[in-house]
Amino acid sequence: MAQARKILIVDDDDDLRATLAEQIACHAEFAVCGAASAGEADAAWRDGHPDLVILAMPLPDRDSMAMVRLMRAEGFSSPIIMLSGTGAEEDVVSALEAGANDCVSKPFRFAGLLARMRAHLRQHDGSEDASLQVGGFTFKPSAKLLVTAKGLRLRLTEKETAILRFLYRAAPQVVGRDVLLREVWGYNAGITTHTLETHIYRLRQKIEDDPAHARVLVTDAGGYRLNA
User: Which PROSITE patterns does UniProt cross-reference here (predicted)?
Assistant: First the structure.
C-alpha cells in the first residue's frame, strides 16, 4: 500500500494534541507525530520531512509566525495549517502572510480539519513543490525526476511521470490498463496496451532493484499498483 502521509502536530496543549493525534491516526492514510513546543518540533520537521504540519498559535517558546517564516526560508514547502486560539481575523491574516496555507480557529470540528488536510495535500501533490516518496526515491513530478537518498537524479519522460503520478494518487488501489491508457494518453485509438507495457518496463528499469521481480510497481488484477 502507499506510504502513509506524515502529519506533525505542534501544540503545547497535551490533551488536544493527543486527541487530535488519535483521531488522525484512525485513518490509515496518515502517520502522526507530535511536539509540545517549537524546540521539539525543529528536529521533527527538519529530519522527519512531514507531509503536513498542524501548528498551534501561540507556542510557549517561540512566536508561531516566526517559526513558519523560518520553515519556509529553509525550504519546507509542504502544507502548514495553523490553529488559532482566539479565532481573531488578524490571526488568520498573520498566518497566511507568514507562509501558512490555512488557519483554523479553536474549537473546531475534526471532520472539517480533516477535509482541509486532504484538500491541501491534494493541492500540494499537483504543485511544482511536490516531493513524493516512491520506493527508495523522492519523486518530483514537476521536474520529471527521481532522486535517490544519495542525491542521484534520474530523468523521467513526460509519460513516465504521468503514469507514476497517477498510480501514486490511486495507491493502494489497482489501476486497470484501460484506465491508465485513457488518463495518460487520452482517447487515442492508435495507442495500445503494448505502448503502456513498454513504458512500465522502462519505469521498472529505473525504480526497481530487480526489475524482473518488481516490488514497487507491481502487476496485479489486470492492471498496475504502486507500493509507494
Answer: OMPR_PHOB (PS51755), RESPONSE_REGULATORY (PS50110)
